[in-house]
Structures are given as C-alpha cells and as structure tokens.
Amino acid sequence: MSAINSTLYISHPSQVLSGAVTLPASKSESNRALIIEALSGAGSQLDNLSEANDTRVITRLLSETANELNAEDAGTVMRFMTAYLAVTGQQKIITGTPRMLQRPIGVLVDALRELGAQIDYLGQEGYPPLAFRGIDRNREYPATLKVRGDISSQYISALLMVAPLFPNGLTLELTGKIGSRPYIQMTLALMKHFGAEGHFEGNIIHVPPQTYQPASYIIESDWSGASYWYSMVALAKDATVELKGLRRNSFQGDSAIANIMLNIGVQTTYNANSVTLTKTNKNEVFAYDFSDCPDLAQTIAVVCAAKGIAAEMSGLESLRIKETDRIAALQQELRKMGGDLEDIGNGIFRVKPITNFAAGPVFDTYEDHRMAMAFAPLALVSKIAIQEPHVVRKSYPRFWQDLESMGFTLEAAN
Ligand SMILES: O=C(O)C1=C[C@@H](OP(=O)(O)O)[C@@H](O)[C@H](O)C1
Ligand SMILES: C=C(OP(=O)(O)O)C(=O)O
C-alpha cells in the first residue's frame, strides 16, 4: 500500500492487537536539536533524528544555498528558521504551503524587529512569506521583551533558542494565557543540555548570554505519535502493545497521554526503554484541559466519541490555527458517524458519544496528519476509509506500515 491522492480502506479482522512498534522520533525535539546545533557552529552527535517530513525540511533548509526557502507545512520550521535567519543576519526569503501563509507569525516578527532584525512581509501583514534583510547588531534592545503567550509557544521557543547569542541575553515577559507550556520547557531543557541555561519563573524567562556547547543527544520517540496507539488499545477487543523508545521522564508534554488514557481504558507500564499498553476499565465521564498538550486533542475527541465517553475538553483555542482548523475538521468528521464536538461556551467543547456507528465512513483529512491518525483507530470498530493517507508523512511516515504489522488490513484505491 502507498499511493498519493488515494483513499485507504482499513479494517482489522481479529480486533486483537499484540506486538511491538518502533515509533518515529519526536520532530519537536529533533528540530530544536538541529537549530541549536546550527547555532553552536560545532558538530553535535544527534542520534535517532526523526524521519518526519518536518525534520527533513529543517535539515534541508539549514544547509540550503538558494535564496528562497520553503518551510512547507511545518510550523516549527517556519518559526524556528525565522528566528535563526534573522539572528544570523541572512538575506533570504522564507515561504510555505498555502495553509502556512494563513498561520500567523506577527508576534515573532515584532519581537525580532525589536531586537534589530529587518524583516519584511511579502504578502499579508503578520503572515509568511517573509524577507530577511539583515540585522543591526549595535541596536539597543529592550531589557525585557513582551511576547504574547496565547497564540503559539513556537514564537517563544524560537526566541529562546537564539537568546544566548545576544550580548545581554534576553528576558521575555509572556503576556496572556500561556499555551503549550511544556514545549517552552522542552526548549529550555534542550538548551541546557547543550550548555545554555535559561530560567523560567512565573511569566518571565531570562536567558543570559552564553555559548552553546556540542554534546551528544538521543532523540526520544514521539509521544504524540504514541497517542494513536493508545486509542487503538482502547478500541481493540484485547491488546498488549509495546511502544519502543519512550521514556518515563520525558521532555515531551504529550507524555501526559499515559494519564489521560487511564480514563479511557488504557494502562501504561514503563519499561527500561519502552512502555507497554494494556486494557483496563474506562470512566464514563472526564474533563481535561488541553492547553499544555493541544496535539492530543484530536486523538481524545475521536476515541471518546467511539467509546461513548462524554468528555469535556477545554484549552482548545490554538486548534483553529494549526495544519487546518482542527475544531471545524473534527466536528465535520465526527458528524459522519453520529458523533460531534459540541461548543458549550467559554472555550469548552463536549464530545458527543456515538450510539450507532454509521457504516463505512470515509474520513477527509484536511492536509492534517493528525486527522488521519486520530480517525484510523476506528478501523477496530468498523471498516473505514481515510482520504489522502500520505498526510501522515509530516510526523509519522511509517504509520500505515506499522498498522499493517499490527494486523490491520489496508487497501488503497485511487
Ligand atoms: O514547539 C513545538 O514543537 C510545538 C508546539 C505546539 O504548537 P503551539 O505552540 O503553536 O501550540 C504543537 O502544537 C506543535 O505540534 C509542536
Ligand atoms: C501543530 C503541529 O505542528 P506544527 O505547528 O509544527 O506545524 C502538529 O504537529 O500537530
């Protein structure tokens, strides 16, 4: 199986899962390690870099000689490269897919301009594509830079990684609600690993001037990718699945999936360098704030609908500006099976449980890897189809092969 622009029909004859999966490495960790390595100017030993397209793209762009760089649909690449190009004083253009040109970047550009970078918008103000025209290194910059924390943490991570290079370092004051906080902490943890320490207290982050030191680092497997396996275990008749390369003390906020899934009927056992998932009892209701782990929201919405759990989900504000408007996409696709994500006000959504599965649903994926992977586990409940299955390449290119190895039947049709 593998055809671009196809429909993938998926079923699982026994509905029993047993075996081990080697997950892809985290693209978030990989892309930070690669930017820090490039800023350090010295070769670090990075092991288990992700095969995700987002990591392939940043690897390519960091050594690209052409004037125009294409970040494709990778948010981290667009945001991290923007800070990198600005601070290294390069004269380049960065662009992306049509969707990327709708994902805001003004908060980051404003901050970099205050730091002396000359950046022009080539299209709509506040959005890519961007043109970099160098940096005024002698410019005095504010002792404290105010940065909104409620749109994307990637702006903050991007600024933090370049912060040690400034003569006085950087102090960021985060304003508004801080979303995706564990990703900021991951950035600081990796910076520290490579010899540059920052301090995060309340809403203030201070990074003194420092020099990155080369170091070796083994990228952890991707907990966001693990979440789909948790869903599959929750929906299977019986299951024992080992996920390799995951750590109990992870830098990834999406490791919260282990606790969340206790509500949905999945038990996690931590081994030396893997976790084993087995089935346990589920709760009938639960509520969770996804502000720290927005990438898990689709996984949870779909599995709860399928398991008849009326979960209350909050902290989903950032979902509308990701690879697609994920709220609208979830509502549209859940309705195909008699489910829904109901807006009950104040940013809270309730999953409407599915009572009778509509037969043979065909799910659209909106150029969003997480739509494909969040709905795929439903193949354990009924035969389903996923449109444009190649979207998984953004973070988990071997996803469909891994499903096949776990007994799923996949048939591609054009
Ligand atoms: O820094 C990162 O690696 C990421 C941060 C999050 O984005 P936001 O900060 O925009 O929520 C997350 O959704 C994305 O997949 C990866
Ligand atoms: C939102 C995501 O990625 P990014 O913002 O880096 O494109 C994601 O992987 O779910």
Low-confidence stretches: none
How would you classify the helix and strand content by structural class? alpha/beta
Spatial strand sequence of the major β-sheet: 20-21-1-22
CATH class of the largest domain: Alpha Beta
CATH architecture group name of the largest domain: Alpha-beta prism
Percentage of residues in helical conformation: 25-40%
CATH superfamily of the largest domain: Enolpyruvate transferase domain
Q: How far apart lie the N and C ends?
A: 11 Å
Largest sheet: 4 strands, mixed
**What is the strand tally?**
22
Q: Could you say which overall geometry the principal axes of the C-alpha atoms support?
A: globular
Mean pLDDT, rounded to whole units? 96
Structural write-up:
- With 414 residues, this protein is an alpha/beta fold.
- The chain folds into two domains: 211 residues, Enolpyruvate transferase domain (UDP-n-acetylglucosamine1-carboxyvinyl-transferase, Chain, Alpha-beta prism); 191 residues, Enolpyruvate transferase domain (UDP-n-acetylglucosamine1-carboxyvinyl-transferase, Chain), CATH 3.65.10.
- The chain is 29% helix and 23% strand.
- The chain is built from twelve helices and 22 strands.
- The strands form six sheets. Strands 20-21-1-22 form a four-stranded mixed beta sheet, with helices on one face. A four-stranded mixed beta sheet has the order 2-13-15-14. The chain has a four-stranded mixed beta sheet with strand order 4-5-7-6.
- Helix 1 crosses helix 6, helix 2 runs parallel beside helix 3 and helix 7 packs parallel to helix 9.
- The longest helix is centred in the N-terminal third of the chain and has 14 residues.
- The protein is globular.
- 50% of the residues are buried.
- The mean pLDDT is 96.
- Bound molecules: shikimate-3-phosphate and phosphoenolpyruvate.
- The site of phosphoenolpyruvate has 8 residues, from helix 3.
